[in-house]
């Protein structure tokens, strides 16, 4: 059986003169790209604008549903060519060739999308710090939209269940809100943000500036678009895409929020269902986050029981694990 021929690429970096927009043009060769419309790109620039050798350095990452690719225009892996060999202006966009670069499949490790992990922490709550999830200003902005959760009644929770308006984890968390005013307020804000992340993750392309409608504070909407979407260029328009990599990142944030809500032990099987993930994928992410995995029999509908996977964040942390998919690809290459 013949080996699959993977495409190489010649790529162009495109940017508006004032730096307000970015786009990438890629011409594939040496293989057939099956679904070019499904390819998502992220461009990284060197922030050192004062160094003439570094300011034009770019890394281009691309992702399909099957594989991820990466290319760069500097270092030993890039061809020695004039990186500014051609330029032109089109529709107020300046474009220039960055050379024929090595643009090859790359397995992107899940750990790339995790919030900072402080493995020298002395308490579980300091391994993934709450302030890395929500800044003080963002946390403050959650006061108003979380009010309904903070004051929720048993009757309202029953209605949520009947209307299937919220996921299982959110319903169960609302059932066990603490009575202490300060603790209840914090839990309600966290549950609201977790609920928002899960709903946001269910989208593929964000088609409007207000990602989830007018009820989301502006600072939270900005956070969602900035940290959990990729800006792509399609049919002459820039759009915000929630790529598979961004979905993995959102999943990680949901897990960490859930840990802070539930005293650092959570039902991964329940969250897996809410996020519509396979058990294998959920375990990959949980292990990359250095959770300890265990099993427990839980009661479900009609008095029956089933096995659920639990994830616990406790010290000392287990060794960091590479995802199975990445390990397999490394063996192949």
From TrEMBL:
GO biological process: DNA-templated transcription
Keywords recorded for this protein, A-Z: DNA-directed RNA polymerase, Nucleus, Transcription
Pfam families cross-referenced by the UniProt entry: RNA_pol_I_A49
Domain of life where this protein originates: Eukaryota
Region (Disordered): 311-333
Gene Ontology cellular-component terms listed: DNA-directed RNA polymerase complex; nucleolus
Intracellular or extracellular location(s): Nucleus, Nucleolus
GO molecular function: DNA binding
Stated family: Belongs to the eukaryotic RPA49/POLR1E RNA polymerase subunit family.
Protein name listed in UniProt: RNA polymerase I subunit E
Gene name of the record: POLR1E
């Amino acid at each position: 059986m013949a080996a699959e021929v993977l495409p190489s690429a010649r790529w162009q970096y495109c940017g508006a003169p004032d730096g307000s927009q970015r786009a990438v043009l890629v011409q594939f060769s040496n293989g057939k790209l099956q679904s070019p419309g499904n390819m998502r790109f992220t461009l990284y620039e060197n922030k050192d604008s004062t160094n003439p050798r570094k300011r034009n350095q770019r890394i281009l990452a691309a992702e399909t549903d099957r594989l991820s690719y990466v290319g760069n225009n500097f270092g030993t892996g890039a061809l020695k060519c004039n990186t500014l060999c051609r330029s032109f202006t089109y529709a107020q966009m300046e474009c220039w060739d960055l050379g024929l670069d090595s643009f090859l499949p790359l397995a992107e490790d899940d750990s790339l999308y995790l919030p900072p992990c402080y493995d020298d922490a002395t308490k579980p709550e300091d391994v993934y710090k709450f302030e890395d999830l929500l800044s003080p200003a963002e946390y403050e902005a959650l006061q108003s939209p979380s009010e309904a959760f903070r004051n929720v009644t048993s009757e309202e929770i029953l209605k949520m269940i009947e209307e299937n308006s919220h996921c299982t984890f959110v319903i169960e968390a609302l059932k066990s809100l603490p009575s202490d005013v300060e603790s209840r307020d914090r839990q309600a804000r966290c549950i609201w943000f977790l609920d928002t992340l899960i709903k946001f993750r269910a989208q593929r392309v964000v088609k409007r500036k207000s990602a989830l409608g007018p009820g989301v504070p502006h600072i939270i909407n900005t956070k969602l678009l900035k940290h959990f979407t990729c800006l792509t260029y399609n049919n002459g328009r820039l759009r915000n895409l929630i790529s598979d990599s961004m979905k993995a990142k959102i999943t990680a944030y949901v897990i960490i929020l859930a840990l802070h809500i539930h005293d650092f032990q959570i039902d991964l099987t329940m969250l897996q269902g809410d996020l519509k993930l396979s058990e294998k994928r959920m375990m990959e992410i949980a292990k990359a986050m250095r959770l300890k995995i265990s099993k427990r029999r839980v009661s479900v509908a009609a008095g029956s029981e089933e096995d659920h996977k639990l994830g616990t964040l406790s010290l000392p942390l287990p060794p960091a694990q590479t995802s199975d998919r990445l390990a397999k690809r490394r063996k192949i290459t």
